[in-house]
Structure formats: structure tokens, C-alpha cells
Amino acid sequence: MVDVVSSQSTKFGGRKQKLLIEAGIVGAIAILLIFIMPAILVGAGQAFRVNLLGRYLALAIAALGIDLIWGFTGILSLGHGIFFALGGYSLAMFLSLQLPSGQLPDFFSPYGVTELPFFWQPFYSLPFTLFAIVFIPTIVAAILGYLVFRNRLRGVYFSILTQAALIVFFNFFNGQQKLINGTNGLKTDTATIFGQTVSSPQVQTVFYTLTVLLLVGGYALSRWLTSGRSGRLLVAVRDDETRMRFSGYDPTLFKVLVFAISAGLAGIAGALYTAQSGIITPQAMNIAFSIEMVIWVAVGGRATIVGAILGTLIVNFAKSILSEQFPQIWYFFQGALFLIVVTVLPGGILGWLRDDGVRWVRSQVNKRRPLQTYPSLEEDPDVQYERKNLANRKPDR
Amino acid sequence: MNEKILQIENLTVNFDGFRALNDLNFSLDKGELRVIIGPNGAGKTTFLDVITGKTKPTTGQVTFKGKPTQGKVEYEIARMGVGRKFQTPRVYLNLTPRENLELSCNRHKNVWNALFGAPSRAEARTVTGLLETIRLETKADLKADLLSHGEKQRLEIGMLVAQSPDLLLVDEPVAGLTDEETENVGTLLLALAESHSIIVIEHDMEFVRQIARKVTVLHQGSVLCEGSMDDVQNDPRVIEVYLGKQEDNPVAA
Known about the structure:
heterodimer, A: mainly alpha, 2 domains, two-stranded antiparallel ribbon, 16 helices, B: alpha/beta, Rossmann fold, four-stranded antiparallel beta sheet, 10 helices, Urea ABC transporter ATP-binding protein UrtD (chain B)
């Protein structure tokens, strides 16, 4: 017993050290992104890429949320566009109201609106807006999640339901000209914040820096949630929810919690993206966009956290570069990418690096592969048979 | 000593006109080990489903430790002290045996504790002890996915015990195990019976003989007869519906 305790404490010490190293690396990357990356890009005459990088880093925050709910917990949401848009609209409404008092945002006049709709009122306040960006998506997700998970709808039914919800929200935002300018969306680039135009370089730099910092925060939150006991419980939900229930856990609450947190992350991402792209429209609730979010995570690697960020950056930069060169082929490329990931790299880029990459590199430099199993096992026909026929049997995800 | 831990009165479960359980009465003393046998479709698994809250009874009621379980869902009943092992082993495949046991062992199964709690020393010690009991010490930190069928069975039984329930429900624990593993599981169950009440559902008559003190035979959703292994084996009704004629069934002989 003494041995166990002492070995655990040394393990704990090692973990602390590893965490410190990880924090150091993350900090270094953040500093690189905030101070050095923009200078490099501007120096290379690619200043507009700084803005793109900022936007994609914002999208990466949403991808973290998808990784939490899909990668770790195994619940595929195809409706995160809702939460992204709710966050984006919250900020855009606040920015639209930065006007001399008594004046209405311009887009209202063609529709003959003379009085601000009631739900715009609270968005005069910055603290409320900041609260709304995170918590409106969170609360909507919690309600939706509770209703769905309580009835034990799972798997593909949940995915379809999120798509249906997405269409409902899309149609609402798209159709209500008099409330939120319908299909035209809300423009934020000409608005002002603290007396400065939002699209000015100074304000954009602030938003860029904020994005990096919040991405680091999102990363830390995801790491914390997926480590230790809560992380094991997320895996337990994914592996066998029924077992969990019979062990005395209520999986509904865990699922609602993770879904709500991932929605909050998507809300933050939506606000930051809106601030840097200058507009939010109902297109953020386009079905394709919500599916794209899942593709980013799949490409980077499910349940890896870093993979979600990496996948988002890779896919989106590929998208912007390819569509500059060959505007027609991007969608083919995206489809191909998804197929390749599903068929060849089911673990995504990071999953491949973790599992096979090391071995592959080693075999390339001609070092002997470490022995994986007993040679006799490899030749045993019974083992081969079992491997062939039973290895892929896994419970439904 | 005759305190009842589980009492079931006039229980009927009706699936679209099919009576899986039919006016069933059953009771279990505290600390008892009971084996339930019966032909396929006799309602054995439905019986466990009702006790654990997975299936709602059409009529009748279940009383556990003097409290009715009516209207309670699975996790609430589990927290009252009912542990269940499934027919096929259900463990968390992407977690290690140690983590599997730790999750079951955890006393505070709410969300708050999941986020901010950490396993206590005492829990870590319980888990280590359990790993020894189910003889998985050497594989404690491998993914459970890599365990053999028998090891998964033992791990799941370990998880039940970690929950420290008052009543263990064990559904066909030796299905698909080798003779040696079967005997191990039997010994494990007998050891557990010293401090728990246990209901075992089993088909393997040799195994039943190894562990049984009192046997209940289910047939068409009700109790056909109850008694010691010998009584049951010699009951003509049981031979008729389940065991078969003695001449052509060496196990029953």
C-alpha cells in the first residue's frame, strides 16, 4: 500500500511538471501569435492575412466546443451555427447601437420601424452584451439539450434534431427584416466602439489579441474539462451511457453541461469572428457551415483539443488560398479532404501523428520497429481470425 | 435476521399484450444469495429490468430496503444501493480498469463533484484492493478494450462491488467463460455473498450447483417453485419445463 501511495505522488509530481511545460508551450505560441506573426505577415506584404488568421483563430474556439461535445462525449451536433450566430448577433447589436442617443440604426428606416424593438434595449449596455455573448448560447443549448437528452434521444436522432433547430433559427433570423434586418444581417465594420471605428487597425489589433487570449482560455478550459474525473466521465458517456446510469450517474446532466459549454465557446467564437469580418448574417446558420465545423475537428483529430485548433487553421487557410487560385474547386477539395480523413486517417492529423506517425518516421530512418507483440501470436490462425472478425466490434457511438 | 431487503408484490409487466411478468411475487432476505433459473423467455431479464428501473411495471410494486422504487429512474435506484451486471460485459472500453473502478467507487456522483472533486486516498486504496480481488493488478493501466472477455466480466463485477451496493443483480456472469474462469467467478460471488445480498441469473447448471443455496425457478413470468437445489431438481414441474427428463440430461442427474 505504501508503494502505491508513493508511486502515485511521484506520478502526480510528474504531471505537474508536464502541465508546466505545456503551459509554457501554449504561452510561447500565444506570444508568437500576438507579437511576431502579424509583423511577419505584414513584412511579407500579406497584411490582410493577419485579419484572416484572427478570424480563423476565432473559428478555432468554436471547433474546441465541437471537439468537447463530439470528440470527447460522442454527441454529434450539426447545429452549432445557432450558437455561433447568437454570439455574433449579440455583439453586432451592441455595435449597431453605438449611436448618438435617440437615433436608430440605419437599416430600420426602410422598413418603417420607428421604435427600437424591445429585445434590443439591453444591448445598449456593454456588460450585458458580454454576458449575452456567452450565456444566451449557453442557455439556449442547455434548454435544447435538456429536452432532448432527458428523452434519451441519441446518436443520429440528436444530429438531425440539431439540424432542424438550425433551420428554425435560420428562417427566423432570415425572415425578420423589421427586427434584425433579415437576410442582410448586421454590419459592424462602420460602427464605433469607445469612439473608434471597428474596422480601424487599432481596434482590429485589439480584437485579434483578444481572440488569441480567449483561444488560450478555451484551450485551458477544454484541457481541464477533459482531464481528471470529468474527462473520464465524458469518455464514459461516449463508451456506455447505460452502464453509467446503472452505476448511479445521471448522464443527462453531464451531456447538458458539455453541450452548454460548447455552445458558449461557439458564442464567443461568433462574436470575435463578427468583429473581425465586419458583418454577421443568417448565413452563419447555413447548414453547410455547421457541418464544416465538424470537418475541421475531424481533419485535426477528434478528442485531441490541439487537433481542433490545428484542423480549423489548416482547412480554412487551404480554403482561402485555394479559392483565391481556383475559385471553383474549393468544394471538391473540401469533400475530398473529408473523404480522405474518414477513410485513411480516422484519427485525423493528430491521431495519425500520435499512433502511426512515430513508427512511420522511425521506419523511414531505418530504425528497427519496436516489437509490438509475440511473434507466435502474429502467426496464430485463431488470433488472426479473431482479429479479423472481432476487432472492429465496438458499441454504437 | 429475516429482514427483507427486496420485496416484490403482484408484479405484472405487459408489453403490448404480452405478459413478460405475470403476477409475480418474490422476496429476498438480507444477506441472501439467490439463483434464478428458468427457460428462455421466462422473464428473467425483465425481472432485473423492473428492479433496476429500466422497465416500469404495469401493476404491482417493488420495495427495496423498505422503500418503494416506484417512479424512480435507473440512477436513483442505483444510488439507493442496487448494482447490476449485464449479460454481456459492459465496461468503459476507452478507460483503464483502474479508471473504470474509480468512477464506480466515487461516492458523490453529481456534476459538481465531477468537475471539482478528486479521488480521495481512501478511494484509491479501495480501487487497488479491488484490482487485487478481481486479479487485474497487472492490467490495471491498460485500456479495458484490450482485456479478454473473462477479464471484462471480472472487471464489471469489480465495478459493481466498488459501487458498494446492498443488492447485487448478476445476469449470466459465466456466459462464454472457460471452466476455470467459471469457477473463479463462482468463488468471487461466494466471497461477495458474505457481505452483500445477491441475485444471480444463470443457465449453467453446474455453476448453479456450485454457488446456489436457494433457487427460484421462473416460468412464463411467474415463480414456478422455490427451494434448495435438490428440491428444485426433483420437482416434477421444473423437470417438465426446464431441466428435461433426468435420463437424457446428465447435468440434472
